[in-house]
Specification:
Number of domains: 1
Helix content: 55-70%
Order of helices and strands: HHHHHH
Distance between the termini: 18 Å
Radius of gyration: 16 Å
Largest sheet: none
Strand content: under 5%
Number of helices: 6
Shape: globular
Structural class: mainly alpha
Number of strands: 0
Amino acid sequence: MVLAGVVAFMGITTASVLYPDYSIRQDISDLGSTRPPDPVIHEPSATIFNATMLLTGAFVVIAAYFLYRDGGTRVLTVPLAVFGLSVFGVGVFPGNVTPWHGLFALLTFFSGGITVVLSSRAVTRPFSYLCLLLGGISLLVLVSVFFYGLVLREPTPLAFLGSGGVERWVAYPLLLWVPAFGGYLLGGATPTR
């Protein structure tokens, strides 16, 4: 989990630096490829980003497996594995591969938020509060985007951040949790439920 977090942050940072005129107002996945109808792919950013997602997802799936073998319950290990597989899917299907990229990105955000919230029940305080906060922020922003867009037919109150800024409010709490949870486990703690 610690390696997954490090790979994710360093890979996204490296791909961002090498992408010409990249702005964090752009979607994170633009680093791999923008969406059709006229997708833009910048190398080496695309390869770095897609490989980052593949490695991050694989590391999370491996962590879920070892956590399960160490006595972790399915309530935590199954959503964690789904989260890892979803991140892996984002790497397999860059932004120009519709609808698969969007489906895997949405599954990543949803399963990640659920996993982080569920992890709050398996760790001790005060870390459990941090898990609730990070998962809650991610899910709240994700749900608000859909609520404002589909129900109210208005932009989210965070629209001033651009789609990439809003997406980071969903993704970064999850990415911060990954190495934090890994550190918790490395410290010798065992999830309780």
